[in-house]
Amino acid sequence: MNRKLLFTxxxxxxxxxxxxxxxxxxxxxYSKCLDECDEEPLRRVIRMVSSSNVYRCNSAxxxxxCKDIKISQEEIGNWNQGNRGGAKYTQWEVTLENKLDxxxxxxxxxxxxxxxxxxxxxxxxxxxxxxxxNLILPTYQNSIGPKGKWVFGFILQDSEPxxxxxxxxxx
Length: 171
Fold this sequence. Notes:
It contains 3 helices and 9 strands; from the N terminus they run H-H-H-E-E-E-E-E-E-E-E-E. A hairpin with a 5-residue loop joins strand 2 and strand 3. 23% of the residues lie in helices and 34% in strands. The protein has a 5-stranded antiparallel sheet with strand order 1-9-4-7-6, covered by helices on one side. Strands 2-3-8-5 form a 4-stranded antiparallel sheet, with no helix packed on it. The longest helix has 22 residues, at 3-24.
């Protein structure tokens, strides 16, 4: 059985267990949300995509794991596109380097207004969570190994790199 099919079956089983538990308590997903939807958006995403240990980046913490995760951006090229009114575009390659001695199962990169992606097809190897303004590891990648790297990219409107801030990691 291939990995994609196995993953899909696992997700379906988990969701069926969750919903059978919710409905067996005479609740709907919407009534359950009344209590939980007030939580901060990042926490909701973490609950959705990860069941492992989650560490929120905190530079004041003496054990700050995030200091060993490096994000770098490299300009690959830029051009003016005549059929889009002469707009300037720049392609960027982003490398997330895990310098830790253990694997990361997820990262949560906070993006802001500077991530002006040309269109929906102009971002790859990373998943956008619009509701929290986070970029996360795509579902087809299980982890980033110890001392490993993950590369993703995008094409931005303009020539400036995006502001990307590591907000949390899972391991």
